[in-house]
Amino acid sequence: MANSPRAKLKVRREKLEGHIEKGEIDPDTGNAIRELLDAYDENKVMVTKPKGESHRTPQTLMAWLYRLMVFAQYRNLTESEADDINRDVQKMHSGDHPHVQDKGLKKGTLRAYQAAVRKFYGFYDFGVDPNDIPLFDKEETSVEPNDMLTKDEIHEAREVIDNPRDLLVYDLLLYTGQRREALRTIRIKDVKPQEGTYRLNPEVDGLKGATERNGNRPLLGAKATVQDWINNYHPDPSNPENYLITARPGYSRPDPTKPVSGETIRQVMLKVKEKTNITKPMHPHAMRHNHVTIAKRDYNIPDDTIKYLIGHSADSTVMESTYAHLSGDDHVQRAEEAFGIREPEEESAFTPEVCHVCNQPLEPNAKACSNCGTVYTPDAQATQEQIQEDMYE
């Protein structure tokens, strides 16, 4: 695919070669950058990555390359000292560096530059200790609790959707918590709706390590929607290589051999929000935040299980950073419930009023449908047993 992360990395590497040919980047520095990228690129076999480290996605390699080229256009990185790099970073922050505008770059942005050049010096023995290049503190990335959708808002949004393709997108975002890049590239053969599970497409670059632990994951409330879409609406479900999400049938001429764009996923959620009175964020990544918050707050799912479900590595710090809000007011609420100060909330945010599969009315806190067995919550025993089995397969 021309716009795939792998193709974009190729274009960026060509830009590096152009800078070297024009004399804008020293050849020694250029060679060092090439070798670093090759070492961490799983498609390259001539350079060995450092022992104990994993390969990086094309997106990560693109990010390293871009930032290293910025440094390399102004100095030879094979001969520089830590103080030289730190001065460059300071100038980027103050706006005195020729690469940046007068207002400079924020520290949170510059942290990525520091991380890239530290990786460079950690890979080589050029006499620079990476620890002598300090990292600026991370910018605050935690989720705002008040932005999370209530159960009523979740189901209000679902009820305004008037076509099966958009309903598929909505349910997949909510019930899987996956990034739009991961969802749009899932193929027919990656889903098993009768079993209520799916896998990510392992052939796709740029999923930020989500495929490293790529066992089965639960579809939860998206099970019936996926099954209905495949059985009744998908333009060609007979070919297992076709992508699950396509353009809207009848709205355009869907080509299931090509994935929809990330912008298509974003537009679906934008249109859903416009049909409701909801003012909270509802873009694809906000739905991911909702999934994690509900899983942790309402169902007390262990952090490692949540990280597995949403495609983070076991050593990810996402729960301590992005979802730090879950350790505050929500724990206060649980304590008050335990001491009888507050009535416990009995409604499950993931549980619909009626089963998506058999239309059986459901209790507000039902974990699964008592009639057909469809599971809606990540803490249901059957779901937990399947997750634990697949996490370590």
From TrEMBL:
GO terms for molecular function: DNA binding. It holds the Pfam family Phage_integrase. GO terms for biological process: DNA integration; DNA recombination. It comes from Natrarchaeobius halalkaliphilus. InterPro entries: DNA_brk_join_enz, Integrase-like_cat_sf, Integrase_catalytic, Tyrosine_recombinase_XerCD. Keywords: DNA integration, DNA recombination, DNA-binding. Residues 144-337 form the Tyr recombinase domain. This is Integrase. The lineage of its organism: Archaea, Methanobacteriati, Methanobacteriota, Stenosarchaea group, Halobacteria. SUPFAM superfamilies: DNA breaking-rejoining enzymes.
